[in-house]
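Mods, move this if it's the wrong board.
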Amino acid sequence: MNDLFANEPRKPLAEALRPATLDEVIGQQHLIGPGKPLRLAVESRTPHSMILWGPPGVGKTTLARILAASFDARFIPLSAVFSGVKDIREAVEQAHAELQRSGRHTILFVDEVHRFNKSQQDAFLPFVESGLLTFIGATTENPSFEVNSALLSRAQVYVLNGLSETELQQLFRRAQDKGALEGLSFDEAAVNTLTGYADGDARRFLNLLEQTRTAAHARKTGTVTPDFLGEVLTVNARRFDKGGDDFYDQISALHKSVRGSSPDGALYWLTRMLDGGADPRYLARRLIRMAWEDIGLADPRAMQITNEAANTYERLGSPEGELALAQAAIYLAIAAKSNAGYTAYNEARAFVKQDKSRPVPVHLRNAPTRLMKELGYGREYRYAHDEPHAYAAGETYLPEGLEDVRWYQPVPRGLESKIQDKLDFLRRLDEEARQQENDQ
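Not the wrong board. Structure tokens:
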């Protein structure tokens, strides 16, 4: 075992195994496979500006370098974290000089382009437009929100995906074939553990392999098992970004699982977000919102349970209080669903926003003074508790011209089916009262 790592490469594994051609790239076949856009661009030798949008460690920088090499273009990399307008101007000057000296085109690669503000993005826009530069941006954030529209209209957006377990296993075999894991024996379960830890991130996967190799060397062992990995690796949380696309995609998945009556789906996405570091108080607030939006009066217990779950979390904190949130999510998923109240509110709000200011009917007005009483305020108001069924049949409570409005339409599920029966009964009383009034 003494010479197990005698020929260990000095470069980090992720750099040593970085692909040099499209054929060596693992994953992203929807972009680089036969007949796909980036493959066609390379084969036709026609570069174009683009934004590579995807999670960390899926090959955005690698693809940009391969494209530059394929087009025999000068490659100028900038990081939006460290660069400013001055760096952009220097890149433009280098592109001018290169074009005059050798006739070579320049590709300007901006990593984390979403971190450039509007003025920084505008600084290189004219040179992209003139053709002096081909712009390739890399971002983990949705370009629709983070890249200005002028630049977005001049660049094709390509979405990159996290690597699948099968693709990560391909990467593992490549590391073996290149001799990077010489002397180490991985059982199948260990490889599966590593691919799970990597969470679709090729860079993280290779870094984990490197940590494993170093730990095996230190412990003078050549056998790698899941137990060994559990002892020697510090594993980051699953892919999650507080406030980024993954965050909103996951909260959307949680909400839609609840709405779709999938308790397992709701539980999965809730625990994914908790595992990723989401604020449990935020999740509690979203569960309360779901109770009002998607369950409503079909099951008023949903509001009680979600509010109690939020209060329980405030008392217990994590991890004990998370159980209350989990059970609230399960209850919301299995509860009878109704968006009738939510829809009625939105329709009423939209109507009022565009409608005129209709006066309050005289019989509904408050009459605290003598003058108001003399003007007839409240004179014809009927006190519902003094009427049969505690209901003033035939009375109207809406302004003139809106007597027949019915924004609230209960659904035939849960408590709302009984609410509909009650409304039907009251409307029959209204019809009878109006018929009697007409007969008189």
